[in-house]
Amino acid sequence: MFYEKRRILFAPIASVAESIVMQPVDTIKVLRQSNQPLPRQVHLYYKGFTPFISQMSVKYFLRFSSFEMLKSKNNNFYRNFGAGIVSGFMESMFITPFELIKTNLQTTKNTSAISVVKDIYKTNGITGMYRGFTTTFFRQGINQAFNFSVYNKIKEKIMSKDQKPNIFKIAFSSLISSSIGPVLNNPFDVVKTRFMNPKYNYKTLQNAFSDIVKNDGYGYLFKGLGLRLFRVSGGQVIIFITIENLMYYT
Predict the structure, then answer these.
(1) What is the pLDDT of residue 12?
(2) 2-249 is classed in which CATH architecture?
(3) How far apart are CA 134 and CA 99, in angstroms?
(4) Is 193 helix (H, G, I), strand (E, B) or coil?
(5) Fewer Cβ in 10 A, N or C end of the chain?
(6) How far is residue 102's CA from residue 26's CA, in Å, rounded to a whole number?
(7) What's the mean pLDDT when you consider all of the chain?
(8) Do the beta carbons of residue 52 and residue 98 sit within 8 Å?
(9) Chain segment 212-231, per-residue pLDDT in tens
C-alpha cells in the first residue's frame, strides 16, 4: 500500500523539472492564442514562472493523491477514467487563480504577481480569482481522464509490474496517454486563455467563444495545439519517467 502511495510524494518533485523545461513553451502558446507578438528577450519567456512553479507541486500532489484514492485496484479502465476526471476537478479548484495570474503576467507589461492579485481583487473581489474556472476544469478533467486511464492500460500491456523502468516504454505510454486530452479539449484552452487575458475584457465565456468564432473562425479554436501537445505530452513524459524511476530505486 505504501509503495503505491509514494507516487503522491514523488509527483511534486517531478513537477519542478517539468516547470523549468516547459514554461517558455507555455508562454509562446498563450501569446499565440492571444494574437500577441512573441518577446525578443529570452528571459521574458519565463514571465509568469513564479505562479507557474508555485502551483505545480501542489497541483501534482492533488492530482495523484485524488487519483490514488479513487483508482481501480484491478486497473479497470472506466473506474480510472472517472478517477481522472475527479483529479482534474480537484487540481482545477487550486490552480485556476495561478493560471489567471500567470496569463496576466504573460500577456501584459506587469511584472509583479502581487500587483496582478491586487488589481483582480480590487475589480472583482475574491471571486475574480476564479475567472475561467469552468474552462480550466473541462481542460484538466479531460486531460487527466485519458492521461491516467490510457497510461495505466498501455503500461499494463507492455511492462510487467516489477520490471525495471524502461525509459522508452514509459515515454511511449505517457506520450500516447497525454496526447489525447489536448487534441479533444484545445477549444476549451483557447477560450480559457482569451477569457483570462485582460486585453480582451470579456464579460462571459460565451462572449469569448462568440468573438473568437466571429473574428478568427472555428479553426482558431485549435490554435496552439502543436505547442500544447509538446508542452503537455513532453511534461507528462518527464513526470512519469521521474516517478517510475523513483518508485523503483527507493
Answers:
(1) 77
(2) Alpha/alpha barrel (1.50)
(3) 13
(4) helix
(5) N
(6) 10
(7) 92
(8) yes
(9) 999 999 999 999 999 999 99
